[in-house]
Amino acid sequence: MISEAEFKQLFDTHFDAIRTFIFYRCGNTDMASDMAQDVFVKVWEKRKQLNNDNLKSLLYKMANDMVISNYRKNTSRSDFEQSMSLWDGSEAASPEDELLFEELASSYAQALEKMPETQRTVFLMSRNDELKYQEIAKCLDISVKAVEKRMSAALQYLREKLL
């Protein structure tokens, strides 16, 4: 367990180095500061499970994972925006396209409402909160296999309802 004083010392000692490490990976000062703060927030939240052994390497591992996760999220968001772009910027979307999009969004919301609670919880934790299966399993106090099964069922349910 890490005490408040130990955490403060850890923060004071390593924050600038972690922020610089992230900056060199992403090239954005503001993003680097935000991600470095997120790393330390996660350490603070998990301080009861941690001990003082190899905290420095843990910080760098968490920072690296966060940069990779952020990169993947931005890449997939960019890919999605490109694939979903309905116009090239010079012309507006047709009313038919807008209606189709609204119908799809409505169908998605209805499918989420009707989805079994256990599946919906896992699906939203994964997609909206961007938690890994291990983190979801820990939060819900279930096995990773159970999370995988629920997620698979949720995706199958959405496929059936939306296609």
| CATH homologous superfamily placement of the largest domain | RNA polymerase sigma factor, region 2, helix turn helix motif
Q: Might you state the CATH topology name of the largest domain? A: Rna Polymerase Sigma Factor, Chain: A
Helix coverage percent: over 70%
Strand content: under 5%
* Structural category: mainly alpha
User: On the 0-100 scale, what is the average pLDDT?
Assistant: 86
Q: Report the end-to-end length measured between terminal Cα atoms.
A: 49 Å
Shape: flat
CATH architecture verdict of the largest domain: Orthogonal Bundle
Task: Describe the protein.
Helix 1 packs antiparallel against helix 2, helix 2 crosses helix 3 and helix 6 packs across helix 7. The protein is an all-alpha fold. The chain has 7 helices and no strands. It folds into 2 domains: 85 residues, Rna Polymerase Sigma Factor, Chain: A, CATH 1.10.1740.10; 70 residues, Winged helix-like DNA-binding domain superfamily/Winged helix DNA-binding domain (Arc Repressor Mutant, subunit A).
